[in-house]
Amino acid sequence: MKQLRIIYDGDCPFCANYVGLMRLRENYTVELVNAREDRAIADSYRLNLNEGMIVDVEGDVLHGARAVAFLSRSSRWPRLLSSDKVAATLYPLMRLGRALTLKILGRDPL
Question: Which of 33, 39, 72, 85 has the fewest CB atoms within 10 Å, i.e. is most exposed?
Answer without folding.
Answer: 85
